[in-house]
Amino acid sequence: MEIAFWILVILIGITLLLALDFTIGRRLHLAKVNKTYFPVRKSQLGIFTHGPELFEDYFAELRKAKEHIHILFYIVKNDEISHKFLAILKEKAKEGVEVRLLVDWVGCSISRKNIKKLKAHGIEFSYSQVPKFPFLFYNSQIRNHRKITVIDGKIGYAGGYNVGNEYVDQDKKLNPWRDYHLKLTGEGIQDLQKKFLLDWERATKVNLLHNQQYFPSLQQGETRHQFVPSEGKQLEAILDELLSVAERSIFIGTPYFIPSEKVFNRLLSALDRGISITILVPFKADHILVKEASYTYLRKLIKKGASVYQYKKGFYHAKVLVIDDKFCDLGTANFDKRSMFLNFELNCLIFNREFIERVQTILHQDLQDSRPVALRDLNRFNPFRSLKERAAQTVSYFL
């Protein structure tokens, strides 16, 4: 009995210490959040929805680099496609191209041996968001979830794909992988470049923003867009504002639907105003509890008239928001609390009608590959699922 008492005391103490760490760490982080604002630009935008096609194009552009390659990924695995990716970078560095690779400390799986090889080839490598004292628990939760590539200051990529076998349909459980990734040329490249260099400075303490070779003269394209970086609690305010202007319809595609209370209430209010809401989420889950964490929200939305679909043709990892055919939002942020409050994210607001119609065609196909979710599906008696839902609600902030 005495042992059980002391175990309980220790567990309570650890919980209190973690809560204190998180609370103070977050307060200090929010006090110094890097708020970056970019104007509306005009660029040429392309969109990829299939990993093999994206990486075929991506690797071809990397091989054509002449001056510099700047890359930020949340995840780079230690597998076949990742080795191919790193081999290209080493090849370009050997040719004299400046190569900088920034990866998230948690998401990266590159071995120490391979990191040494990268550096030996002249590649500038760094981790982003390495946990630091004194608030280790909070800092371990702050992840750089952005995906940015800038080639010679003229070609850019941003979106949902990372580097790993599953992203090129080589994972038996999650095959095929459905995601959206943008390719960019034109004046918007300067904003991708600046955001990469700001993240590089945060990680390495080296300021390269003054280097004009990274910012060549660029022509305008045809598609109006705006890059929107976020960290801390900025994304919640951005989503709340975007949803508030809806007049007819809202489409949300996301692998994880765990909205904040403020954003969720905005969706409920939109339904009360007669606005059509469609939500597309995966049928399969790639992480524990994320599916069950969404059910509480989905039930209430379905009751009010929202349409919810589960994607069946593989794993749905795309992040998209389309409002009234007026604009769409594509990027790295999921529709969940982790993206809203913890992660560093980068989204792209697109205002071009032709491009939005192209996105809607993609979404129409994705809905064809999905099944509608009825309220009875979520209310069917399942004690194991109910237990998982309760557990998910407890830790939903960190999923």
Q: Can you name the CATH architecture of the largest domain?
A: 2-Layer Sandwich
Question: Helical proportion?
Answer: 40-55%
Distance between the termini: 35 Å
Please identify the structural class as seen in this structure: alpha/beta
Write down the Rg.
Answer: 22 Å
CATH topology of the largest domain: Endonuclease, Chain A
The biggest sheet amounts to: 16 strands, mixed
Unreliable residue stretches? none
Write down the secondary-structure element order.
HEHEHEHEHEEEHEHEHEHEEEEHEHEHH
Q: Can you say what the CATH homologous superfamily of the largest domain is?
A: Endonuclease Chain A
Shape: globular
**What value does the average pLDDT take?**
93
Q: What is the count of distinct domains?
A: 3
CATH class of the largest domain: Alpha Beta
Number of strands: 16
Strand content: 15-25%
Describe the overall structure.
By secondary structure, the chain is α/β, with parallel strands linked by helices. It has three domains: 1-32; 41-226, Endonuclease Chain A (Endonuclease, Chain A, 2-Layer Sandwich); 234-398, Endonuclease Chain A (Endonuclease, Chain A). The chain is 41% helix and 23% strand. It contains 13 helices and 16 strands. It has helices at residues 2-31, 51-63, 80-94, 112-120, 136-141, 189-204, 234-244, 261-272, 290-303, 337-341, 353-368, 375-379, 383-394, and strands at residues 41-50, 68-73, 98-104, 124-128, 148-151, 155-159, 177-186, 223-230, 249-253, 276-282, 307-311, 315-316, 320-323, 327-331, 345-350, 370-372. The chain has a 16-stranded mixed beta sheet that branches. Strand 9, helix 8 (261-272) and strand 10 form a beta-alpha-beta unit. Helix 7 (234-244) packs parallel to helix 8 (261-272) and helix 9 (290-303) crosses helix 13. The chain is globular and about 60 Å long. The two termini are 35 Å apart. The mean pLDDT is 93.
